[in-house]
Amino acid sequence: MSTTTLEQQRASEALPEKMTAVVCHGPEDYRLEQLDTPAPAAGEMLMQVEAVGVCASDLKCYHGAAKFWGDENRPAWAQHGVTPGHELVGVIVSADQQGRDTHGVAVGDRVACEQIVPCGECRYCQRGEYWMCGPHDMFGFRNYNGAMAQYMVVPSKARVHKVSKELPPAHAAFAEPLSCSLHGVERANIKFDDVVVVAGCGPIGLGMIAGAKAKSPMKVVALDMVDDKLELAKKCGADEVINIGTEDAVARIKDMTGGYGADVYIESTGHPSAVGQGLNLLRKLGTYVEYSVFGSDVSVDWSIISDDKELDVLGAHLGPHCWPAAIKMIESSILPMDEICTNQFPLEQFQEALDMVSDTSGASVKVSILPN
Ligand SMILES: [Zn+2]
Ligand SMILES: [Zn+2]
């Protein structure tokens, strides 16, 4: 006990009084500020942040999407004054006994935290459906500061996972998007016989391709408009790729399936046009999984779901119960991580990182910030 206390003391003695952090002051107003290094309360831990991925959802929040800031149909969910960043990994630099026991980690361990901080009390949390937690507090958006900062408090309700220190920090932080991808794949209930189509080869789509491939279906088909991303999709496990900018995806899929259509369609693009495309290329009794967050309402011929095809349409959100599998997948080097984690920026250049993710021309895949 005395050694741990000493270790802990040494760690906290080394901590600077001030740290640099990004603070959200509302849409398109994120500022770099000097803040007091947070002091964890009893049962909490302090993490020195190593890497934080920039997510499409960070961008949607930055640009003021209704899901985050509300409109006539929904209340605001994001908050002013919060440090963004939920795809995070770091080293625990300070923790009391209670914190270490709660999370099963030691000072010096590298950990990733799930993005949601479940309340533990609502009906969803009580039933183990914590990713649908009612209050829905999340690092970087609501009630908990995220990782675009040198240090971050790991609250006692956080869900913490150890990650190998062998991995480059940006690769380790990919556990968050990959867990989301794997959950989307789990929702699809893939069978050996299936032709699975994944729409979109961004970070989430690439993870879905790898996850779908791991389920060993007959064929995994990737759709995108950028040839470089389709090449990367092949390295992640796609058997066939279709550039929807130059080819007729519905016709190609029908050709592959004796005219019937795909068994499973997993949508990760966030483009309204990808919804109708999926309904059209699925076979009767097929399965549609929606993962995206859309910037606007989507209109489709809803009768395809009922009268025409009797489809199963399923939603997917976050990566519940998929973190250990995602971490194992990254640690086992089966993914081309160097090609997925294309760009890393220091904290001072957070704005460039955000702008790079906004630019959808295909230059970057996963953009990360390394705050220390
Ligand atoms: Zn994310
Ligand atoms: Zn809850």
How would you explain this protein's 3D organization?
This protein has 372 residues and is an alpha/beta fold. Helix content is 30%, strand content 25%. It has 14 helices and 17 strands. It has helices at 2-13, 56-62, 66-69, 97-103, 123-126, 169-172, 175-188, 203-214, 227-236, 249-256, 273-281, 323-331, 337-340, 350-358, and strands at 18-24, 30-36, 45-53, 87-95, 110-113, 138-139, 143-144, 151-154, 160-162, 195-199, 219-224, 240-243, 262-267, 282-290, 312-315, 341-346, 366-370. Strands 3, 4, 5, 8, 9, 16 and 17 form a 7-stranded mixed sheet that branches. Strands 12-11-10-13-14-15 form a 6-stranded parallel sheet, sandwiched between helices. It starts with a helix and ends with a strand. One zinc ion binds next to helix 5. One zinc ion binds at residues 118-119, 121-122, 124-125, 133-134.
User: Which oligomeric form is depicted?
Assistant: single chain
CATH architecture of the largest domain: Alpha-Beta Complex
Strand content: 15-25%
What's the CATH topology name of the largest domain? Quinone Oxidoreductase, Chain A, domain 1
Helix-residue proportion: 25-40%
Number of domains: 2
Shape: globular
Terminal CA distance reads 30 Å
CATH superfamily of the largest domain: Medium-chain alcohol dehydrogenases, catalytic domain
Rg computed from alpha carbons, rounded to a whole number of angstroms: 21 Å
Which class of the largest domain in CATH terms?
Alpha Beta
- The number of helical segments is 14
- Main beta sheet: 7 strands, mixed
